[in-house]
Structures are given as structure tokens and as C-alpha cells.
Amino acid sequence: ESIENHSDKAVTRFIYYAVNVRYFSIQGTEDMMVDSLGMSTLFLPDVQYHFHGMNPDEVVNHAYSVLYYIFEHDNPIGDGETIAGLENGDMSPDIQWKVQYEDSLIQPVREVLDINMGEYASGTR
After folding, report:
1. At residue 68, what are phi and psi to the nearest 5 degrees?
2. Which member of 50, 62, 93, 120 has the lowest number of beta carbons within 10 Å of its beta carbon?
3. What is the pTM of this model?
4. Does residue 4 sit within a domain?
């Protein structure tokens, strides 16, 4: 009833109630992870970021923006394409981050849209 009576549109309701964006710091390193869990219930990809040197709160907000876009447009993002990155905490078309589909780094294993954050990216792809 709470979900059904939520005043926001369907996309906002689904993301708010059914998707969780998680943050992890990698012990012994400067690396961090942000990923989502829940989009697969609609056969859409979750997202994942493996990074360092950026405010994780800004990355979480970016993740929610990407998830809203994926949901609203039935995932038009293709493997190897780019999406707007972050500049001073805001999405900027001047900064392009390459994306690719791969298995998640964090459990449960599922296909995710991995977002390579350029100079802030950690790990190998």
C-alpha cells in the first residue's frame, strides 16, 4: 500500500523501494566500490563503480541518476558506449566515462554495467 500510494511517478517509486545502492571501502587500499542491487528483477542491469579519489556520496548520486535513466528508457546504453561523468559533484557531458557489461565484483554475481571513471578508476577492465 505504501508503494502503491507513493506520490512520485513509477520510476521513482521502483528505484526508491526496490533498488539498493551500496557503498564499500576496500580494506587496506584507497579503493571504493559503489554498486546497485535490484534492477535485475526487471531484467535490467545494475551498475558498478570501482574507484578512488572521489566523494562516494557523489558517486552514489550518479548511480541513482544512471539507474533512473536505464529504467525510464529501457536500458539504451550499449557495451563500450560512454555516459556523462562527474565534475564538481554534478553530471557533466564534458566528461565521458566508458561503460562495459561484465559480471559484478560483489555478490550476488549478476551482470552489471561497469562504469570506468577514467582517472578515478581502480582495478583492471
Report:
1. -60, -45
2. 93
3. 0.89
4. no
C-alpha cell at 87: 565534475
Number of structural domains the chain divides into: 1
C-alpha cell read off for 37: 542491487
Query: How far is it, in rounded angstroms, from Cα 24 to Cα 26?
Result: 6
**Over the stretch 63-109, which tens digit does the pLDDT of each residue have?**
999 999 999 899 999 999 999 999 999 999 999 999 999 999 999 99
Q: Domain range holding 14?
A: 10-120
Nearest-angstrom CA–CA distance, 44 and 23: 20
The answer to whether position 45 is within a domain reads yes
| Structural domain includes residue 2 | no
Query: SS3 of 47, please?
Result: strand
